[in-house]
Amino acid sequence: MTQVSPPATATATAAAVSADAPQTWHVLLAPAGDLSGDGQLRELIRERRERQGGTGAIWYLQPRLVADLGLGQGPGLGEELEAVVTPAASVLTWLQLRFGGRAAGPLSQARLTTAWLDAEAGALPPGAPLPRVS
Fold this sequence. Notes:
Layout: E1 3-4, H1 14-20, E2 23-31, H2 40-52, E3 59-61, H3 63-69, E4 81-86, H4 89-99, E5 109-112, H5 114-121
Parallel strand pairs: 1-5
Antiparallel strand pairs: 2-4, 2-5, 3-4
């Protein structure tokens, strides 16, 4: 498991303290482009955020963030990975059935803070590439 937590400040409010407390999150890993390549993950996350407000309790980790956190190290998935993070195992299972990837074993969880996820992984996945018209 990977643990990332920004430094706490002396004037943190109760809400900020809870956002700065590391929690265990479920992580779906896949080779870069497998989850986000066709733009469907972007649309799913956007719709979920519109319906539920805020982040929708789902974040996309681009390959740089996955590497920085040391997620997916080991055999089987390749070198450049992307990920989706959520607190609910059922959401992760549904995402895996829909998009593929790996959510089993010790690589499927990480200890992160909500504040870190919001700041670093709050952006939507890339959009689908435009079709070539000749």
